[in-house]
């Protein structure tokens, strides 16, 4: 029974507790009865969830779709085998075949159907091949999953010539080519001479294939009827077949089978079989289960709606919210529409009017514009729209046309929700799965609709296997729970069959979906003055100095600017202070407390009884946290909600995760639950403050990382329970699409991007400045007698600046020959250039403020530094290098080696790039230095005048001859980018969301690599997970891997590394389109293969000759975010590693095989299992918690951190059992790690540096590997690093230092001088010290504490006097915080 739970609590074993438990909301109500019937206590225990048998996502068996005629009375037999994507044809086909067999005329029909997903299972696939051997007819439809399409193709191809007819309706071209009907075939499909080829061409205006096919279906039979040739008649029957199939009703399918059997089955050749023409349904229209017909006109539908007697007048009235639904026609015509009816009834029961529209093709954008928008006023008829198809709006599972979808949804301009029916799993399998939805369903029905701006992937319908153990005794309860109307049949056997054959609504999920859809609709209708908004800020790590922290965002200034604007707009923000400082004071300090106590303002005290009444899942939290109120966010009697209310706006502080003070709990918690204070906060926001919307402010809180299924949550998943029914709007950093996607999927957020501050040149500080001056004097004086003297000053100054750690310097006083001198100076110069050009965030971003000219220049210089061959744009440094006859790549390489003239040239190029860009931007700035009215001013600059500002600037440099055409192309592009940088819509989009309008979607990522991320204020999405790695990513991966392997070989006496341990990050893979994923593939020597639609679901091996080196073993650790977003790619990686382990190659050329064989023998397991190399956290849990322990200094030795890492990160993904989710394989993990010669992390972002984000050291296993290796050798630690720098803001500084300690603990790669420098900069500089102490004493205390901790743990050796000074500062700042020092 416990297997029904999708969360971490366990059940009492005795059965008599069951009824009391099920009343306590422990279960997914949609599957269990409210109480067991007393006369038969075991009645429902028979609904036993199958343990995950074959480890695949679905254990349903095609046998439930097999019909064998009982007695054929000597009639010829016709056997039909079909393969479909979804199960809705199952009941209609079954009913058609039963009627044909009951008639006992012409033939007896045997039929068996397979869902395409079932063919993953080898046994099922063999049965399928066997079924085909004696089949007459094969039918396939919507087969779009490449690996399964290839399986279908190879099985059917063997039998194609023998089969009497092969009919494949819209699917991948490979499968469509199997079509055969007499002389009609599609074998040329995809070649230009084929008439059907035109259908596959991607058309801008429509979803292409399926729609063109529908139009063709309408007209062709009429034309073909009069053509004499057989070929034309066969083509006509194919088109008729398609009409019958799309018509989908039992009658249509019965006539379809009669027509095909009579025309093509030899045994029936002479028999005259009568069949009727297809009953055609509207291609698109409006359908309601109670309406007398389908409607083609919205006015007629609304007229009928107004005459309904079963509705109360309120729903028919003008003030009722109106919800539009988008349905698939195939479910309606096949009669598999119970789940649609349930949603319609639930919405009406909750007071909403419903307009359910459908389409027969895969393009729903036309029907949306036709039926949901008033043609005259252009206003929408609806207040929100829910798509129940689960597919992208245009193109379904095949080719999508997202721009067309966005265009239609922008016209509609209401919130767009995409809910999901389970397609590849049964309800039980989904309930049991920790992953939640099947990876392919996530790719097709979650990731793709997000590109259209779809939100809230709530699972609203399930399907059932015919297991036969669903007892009739439980049927009544089941009926109540699934809100299914069975009144039409009192015959229990019939009911049982119906219950089993069709999709059913999941009652609790339907309630959640409908309530949320209505809540979004209400936003469109309420006045601004009455809307209530709960702004939620975060405090992580939990410390008063951290309240209101978010990545790169100045939270309180931004909130202040947002509220000022909303107030101007008519929202009630009564009592808002005059400044953002006063706002901080209001929220963070409790005015009535003595002195200036660092308490947060308490907005509400919630008694335990009230808390239990408002929070239905409160008892479930007791396992982890004991009885309420507990000791977090409580005063011992009540639960405390921190924050402050201004009119209708509440600013609240989200409680912390709760694990901070107790590291042992961190160590052992494979999963967790929110604490009582956390639950109380959201209960307050929804039920006491009664928020219309909650606005989570900045990246990021803990709500979306709470335990539960990864995607497609049930009602016992905590994020779903906590967010409840409140529409959630979330400001998220534009450069973090991966975590934003988790917020979208797990907390149902409408994510709005904000700009991350552009990087500026860090400039040089004290000692380095002096060194730079020495070098320029060396350049002018090197040939005079002073050369050697200056070089020795350079060497000693470089030592003082700790550059000897990075550059090999000769001993002081040593004679250096003239040639060598240039080399030494060149290397030092190159290092200084690198330090100077490091990027560093320009202060924190404030929402609603236009960027300054300085910020704009910084962004554009970085954008201009990249070549963009696909747009024919050369990089600015490249154009300038060409002017002096050099290739910029050579200049970079020379500068890296320290060749003096190259270092100098690179400096000149960098300076000229900045200068030219600044000259360009200056023309568009106002007196305040802010960039304004770009469009008009750009037109004048880019007019055909001679004085283009960049040409003016370059004319006084050595680059005056630069290619004008290339420069013009580049600056036109930069002009477009500048418009985007300035066209900030962050506030605008927030207002649209609050007014119940559609927020335009856009990609997240690094604005420098992909300027399409701009302007910010878009509803962020990640990319299509099946699109990576791209060819370009594969190319750059080869370069990085070859360098890494080459470097490791040189450093190890010519030996290749046998194993490399890598970390895969979600965001970095989105920004680089899968580069680090491609690096793993190239290490083991395989390459990705894309299908016809450009999706990557397969790999092939690269021969050893082409590879030119051994295959290198890998241990891949995926972040929790990568695991959620790219589960398909984890499957791909695991398949690739296992494929390589099974290659018949010598062990010295294939380290994957070598280690897998050794580990298989040592652990007594098979080679495939021993080749498990893809690891992450358990499903639904994130990060290794090493960062939390470091932040809170709650660990005793590094071994404790390493245990924490092993116990949380040793869950493996298995491509042979993808449905099993992540399973713990710690032994294999440890053995694989013990062979690692190097550890490698990618850090790809021009605006994040290693010490910015604690997640990076959280996943670094360097020291751990050293402990696991038999020889105790420390592996080399590589980071493909772009930046390390140092930003303003005490909080940022303190955070970076804590993260530095984290690096010391996990990789041991941080030198002593790093801490010394930090101490000199922040503590010994009096001015800096006072500034830090007064600005944010709480963070300053943490900074001092971290220095002391680094010393205590042996990472930093320093003088006793430094330590004494720090201790004294610690007690001073304590006093200041406690208010003694007034």
Automatic annotation (TrEMBL):
**Reaction equation(s) it catalyzes:** protoporphyrin IX + Mg(2+) + ATP + H2O = Mg-protoporphyrin IX + ADP + phosphate + 3 H(+)
Cite the InterPro entries for this sequence: BchH (IPR011771), CobN/Mg_chltase (IPR003672), Mg_chelatase_H_N (IPR022571)
A Pfam match is DUF3479
Q: What is its EC number?
A: 6.6.1.1
Record flagged with keyword Nucleotide-binding: yes
* EC top class named in words: ligase
- The UniProt record lists the CobN/magnesium chelatase domain at 243-1291
Ranges of residues in domain Magnesium chelatase subunit H N-terminal: 79-239
Kindly tell me the pathway this chain contributes to. Porphyrin-containing compound metabolism
Q: Which domain of life is it from?
A: Eukaryota
List the GO terms this entry assigns under cellular component, sorted alphabetically.
chloroplast
Keyword Cell inner membrane belongs to the record: no
The UniProt GO MF terms for this protein read: ATP binding; magnesium chelatase activity
GO terms (BP aspect)? chlorophyll biosynthetic process; photosynthesis
Q: What family, per the record?
A: Belongs to the Mg-chelatase subunit H family.
What name appears for this protein in its UniProt entry? magnesium chelatase
